[in-house]
Amino acid sequence: MPDLLKNTFNRGSLGELARSVQSVYKPFKAEEFLESTMDETWDGLELKARVRKISTTLGRYLPADYGKALAVLDKAIVGRSPGFFGIVFSDFVEVHGQDEAHWDLSIGALERYTAYGSSEFAVRPFIISHEKRMMAQMLAWSKHENEHVRRLASEGCRPRLPWGQALVKYKKDPKPILPILKQLKADPSPYVRKSVANNLNDIAKTHPDLVVKLAKDWYGKNEHTNWIIKHGCRTLLKKGNRDVLALFGYGNETPVDVDGFTLGPSSVSLGDDITFSFTVSSKEAAKVRLEYGIDYVKANGKRNRKIFQISEIPIKENEKRLYEKTHSFADLSTRKHYPGTHSLTLIVNGAERGSLDFELNL
């Protein structure tokens, strides 16, 4: 199993940070900083709590004057490789730089630091407390020459950013985000385009009609925009939204036949795989999107469906294709399995084309 991301913040990485700070600011007490940060509470702290512990403790050992403290960090960050550890620098700004008097210093620092470790989390309290001013800044960043800064403009205002402070207002009304997404909808950087797509996907979960309208307006004019729209509509595609399916050519105009949908053994044990197979064919050329859904039994005994994509293919006239698939029932960090009757449903172009039950045993 891969090492937990929180373990990026360890004695080695903290020691490197302490040495880089001390090299540009001699009064910095490196060992004392390390001991104060990695105290008796450290092992029990999760990812964001470790970041906050580091940036809070840094504030006690850097100059009390905020501007002078940033000047130290500006020197210490030079030469660092970009990586997740770099969010410590932007978190320092979030913790110590939200006073109105520090606005210009903080915005400049967030812009500089985002290339070393994204400032996407740190900008969110600024949006909440100074929405119009900060969103104007985000729009300006969307036009920046640096791709890291342009990505920050989109990623920082995602309504549902994982691990990020909730932007409740934008979950309810995402319209203030749209000028930024419009500016970035044909961005040359894949790094930026992925963020724009993820932002659209966030919006689609609460405002599907808005994203459908944007998709229809933007699709077909630029290959970069087309990719953003397709990736940004992934939740709508999984939900079988007819407008979005039709936009990408997966409509029901051409009938696709499904035959021989069979499931392996009618029971499977935790940690094992289940197998299923089916054949698709069409009398006419067609585009086909193939998915399957697993109705998982939850801890409370109810069931919840998860959709998995198989493929998106063009199928020729009178062509027949056989698919044989396996699905694992090993526990993951993101999914725990529970015993009971599950279902596997085959989905073709957003429409259910057969469902089979099976038992999961522990």
UniProtKB/TrEMBL annotation:
InterPro entries: ARM-type_fold (IPR016024), DNA_alkylation (IPR014825), HEAT_type_2 (IPR021133)
PROSITE patterns the UniProt entry points to: HEAT_REPEAT
Top-level taxon in the UniProt lineage: Bacteria
Name the UniProt record assigns to this protein: DNA alkylation repair protein
Organism: Breznakiella homolactica
Taxonomic path: Bacteria, Pseudomonadati, Spirochaetota, Spirochaetia, Spirochaetales
